[in-house]
Fold this protein.
Amino acid sequence: MIGGGAAGFFAAITAAERGASVTVLEKTARFLDKVRISGGGRCNVTHTDLDPREFARRYPRGGPALLGPFHQFSAQDTQTWFAARGVQLKTEADGRMFPVTDSSQTVVDCLLNAARRAGVSLRTDCGVESVARNPDGTFTISLTAKSGPPRESLPCDRLLLATGGCRTPAGGQLAVRLGHSLAPPVPSLFTFQIESPWLRSLAGVSTLAEIAVPAVKLRERGPLLITHWGLSGPAILKISAWGARALHGLNYQFPLEVNWVPDLAAERITAEFQARRQSDGARLVVNVPLFSLTSRLWEQLVLAAGVPRDTRWAILDRTQSLALAAQLTRTAFPVTGKSLNKDEFVTCGGVNLKEVNFKTMESKLCPHLFFAGELLDIDGLTGGFNFQAAWTTGFIAGSSLAVAA
């Protein structure tokens, strides 16, 4: 198994528990780093169990291919697997599932202990220089020399590639050299950089909103988080996932529209303004937040609409009312960039799915070669879906490896 992340470990444990002799090679000094830092250190293991077809709809790329695999190993199977090894999961209001300890180390320890109990050989600091396919169908793995020749070579009958996303050229080159093609890698699940001073002054404010990128006809609704650099939160992450390639094509510079009151029609907004003229005429507009907006956000939206700070409800004129209503329903921001690449957890792109048998996760082009996890052209929305894809593809690959061996 090349790659000591979630998918590689799950495949290794599954294969070893079925009697295969397994070695995991990890190029860094530690296994499971992405698991360790995911979910703010809590590890969003999966999402609450959904019908496989509904679950598959949470993947901007790869959903149809995962439908069959989710019937083989579902989110419920993930819960059962971890529970059998002493890790209980809890479900939060939005469907995300975390260990009851709220610590990703619980998941890391579980995977490490399960691998050791199953007899998996675990090797860190093992960068792979190349993989050669031998005439008899076996493979020879050449490890990167630590201080010059000679390089260590390892033989294997079956090989799993689970090297993660293809953000770096080396990420998918092993697959390419074994005959596979890659969908071009671009970032997914990233945040938006916006230079607006008044927006950045609201860092930490969270609200429900609807966002749209008219240039590529993208629209999403959900929680929105204002940050020191712009906008984040589930709504932004979802729209970045569905629009990963389109936004990359725009070089991450495009107009964004925000509706801060997505549940309200224009008539309701103007009617509320009229009611406030009657009930709060003497009060300043900036001091009377409406529609469950926070006082800080309301104040900035009023000022951004061009309504002077000293304007009272009684003298709010028609032009100002229309400007404020427009600001509430369609605030325009120029997006100037995305979150830095090193902060992204997910990459869109990877091994072409048509080249993989999803019943076994074996290559259709190179017998005895298997794939799992983010190296495939699969990526899901935030909420545990990417880890579930890793568990599912890892389980199927590990099961198939053990049978093939």
Q: What stands out?
A: The chain has two domains: 6-187+346-404, 192-343.
